[in-house]
Write a structure and sequence with these properties.
294 residues; alpha/beta; seven-stranded mixed beta sheet
Length: 294
């Protein structure tokens, strides 16, 4: 699948879900606008030579060291991204965008912290704002860049005809963090493959890479006892299930492509916000929120 086809597929899925799920239409309208901002960043990263600057093959951590991205281009592009926040954003995000635009030093520190996988609490305290809302800006900006570089690294390792995340799996690492960028998973994906039925992969919350992970294991704490790992399915989302961990009290949503092969995991995870609300009512917490902080 070509890069443009990947983004087109996401936006088509958003459009379909906006029509089918009116309760999530406003959220999806904003996400569609975010995708429009992200796609050019992805295209720019694909054409760049940044992979050589950020790739590390020392085996001592994630393959991509995003903090090594060229400083001047990344800060210039991030500033443009923040200033281009669409009108469909919430009032909170619009106010934060205005504040960041007026404080370039804070904007730079925010991006640097996220690229280095450091806490943004100090920046949030300085701006007197909620860290979860503030995180949207660097995360939404870095995501397409990280995805482009992770895809390039994957193809360098597996050959140019190896496909993409939709047709293959980035790695067979049993770690709960992404082998490419080090971020935590935002969802799980279930699919049948020739050699493995019901293969479970984790979907990275940042670069959207996938890697194989034991089907019964909790990504947050490692619990794998069946009686501690129930899953819940609703009639409204038969292909998206809530995987609960009775040991640590967290949950992760799993998109089952065997139930509905036209689902786009990153989109369906975000759109199924009613499942998140149900999980919270049950006293569960999400180990890693999605791009929109849910």
């Amino acid at each position: 699948m070509t890069p443009s086809a990947v983004w087109s597929r996401r936006r088509q899925r958003v459009a379909r879900l906006r029509a089918e799920r009116p309760h999530a239409a406003e959220l999806l309208a904003f996400y569609d606008d975010v995708l429009a901002l992200q796609e050019p960043l992805y295209a720019k990263a694909v054409k760049s030579r940044w992979l050589g600057a950020v790739e590390a093959n020392d085996g001592r951590g994630p393959r991509l060291r995003l903090e090594r991205l060229p400083g001047r281009p990344r800060e210039r592009d991030f500033s443009r991204f923040v200033r281009a926040l669409p009108a469909s954003a919430t009032e909170v995000l619009r106010a934060l965008a205005s504040r960041l635009a007026s404080e370039p030093t804070a904007m730079s520190e925010l991006l640097t912290a996220v690229l280095g996988r450091d806490s943004i609490d100090a920046v949030a305290a300085r701006l007197d704002c909620d860290a979860a809302a503030l995180e949207f800006f660097p995360r939404a900006f870095v995501q397409p860049v990280a995805e482009a570089l992770a895809t390039q690294a994957f193809r360098d390792s597996n050959g140019p005809s190896s496909g993409d995340w939709d047709n293959g799996v980035a790695g067979k690492d049993e770690s709960a963090s992404c082998p490419y960028c080090g971020a935590l998973p935002v969802a799980a994906v279930l699919r049948d493959e020739p050699e493995i039925k019901g293969r479970r992969t984790l979907l990275c919350s940042l670069c959207l890479a996938e890697w194989t992970f034991p089907r019964t294991r909790c990504p947050a704490c490692g619990e794998d006892r069946a009686d501690k790992r129930p899953h819940h399915v609703s009639e409204s989302w038969p292909h998206v299930r809530v995987e609960e961990c009775g040991s640590c009290g967290t949950y992760i949503k799993a998109v089952d492509l065997r139930e509905f092969g036209l689902a786009v995991p990153v989109v369906d995870e975000l759109a199924s916000v009613d499942l998140d609300l149900w999980a919270v009512e049950q006293g569960l917490s999400k180990a890693q929120t999605n791009l929109l902080g849910m």
